[in-house]
Amino acid sequence: MTGRLRAVAAVGALLVLVLLALWGSTGTQTAEPPAAGTAGRGTATGGATPAPTGGGTDRESGLPLVALASLPREAQQTVRLIDAGGPFPYDRDGVTFGNREALLPSRPRGYYREYTVPTPGEDDRGARRIVAGDDGRQLFWTDDHYASFARVQR
């Protein structure tokens, strides 16, 4: 990525944060999906992935809700693998997610597990992840390597 492109992405990310802060300060809940290229609170990803749709806000976490069916097909496949208990394509799939960013609801260490969502065209694990609670029913989506999350609705 060129320096100019990084600067544009940084300005875009800042704009998204400001808009989210303004939206959150109104004290109202709407059925608006997250801004394009975001998984909720956080930064833009440059629009490589269509913005998932959902609606509203998760009451427990305060995160935007996103419908599983609106996530990229690779994310939907990752959720199917989680539900089936594997096998997973990456060695790091299923490792403990520490929630150091404190964006997810506070739980004991070991409650959350992270799983890679492949990104077409990437030659590494990329930034997309599904984070699952220990029972696999509570799912969170991030497309910006933990800078933001949305709660996945099945």
TrEMBL record:
InterPro entries, sorted: N1-like, Ribonuclease/ribotoxin
A GO MF term: RNA endonuclease activity
Annotated region described as Disordered, given as residue ranges: 29-62
A Pfam family of this chain: Ribonuclease
Keyword entries, A-Z: Hydrolase, Nuclease
Compositional bias (Low complexity): 29-38
Keyword Signal: no
Superkingdom per UniProt: Bacteria
Protein name in the entry: Ribonuclease T1
Organism: Friedmanniella luteola
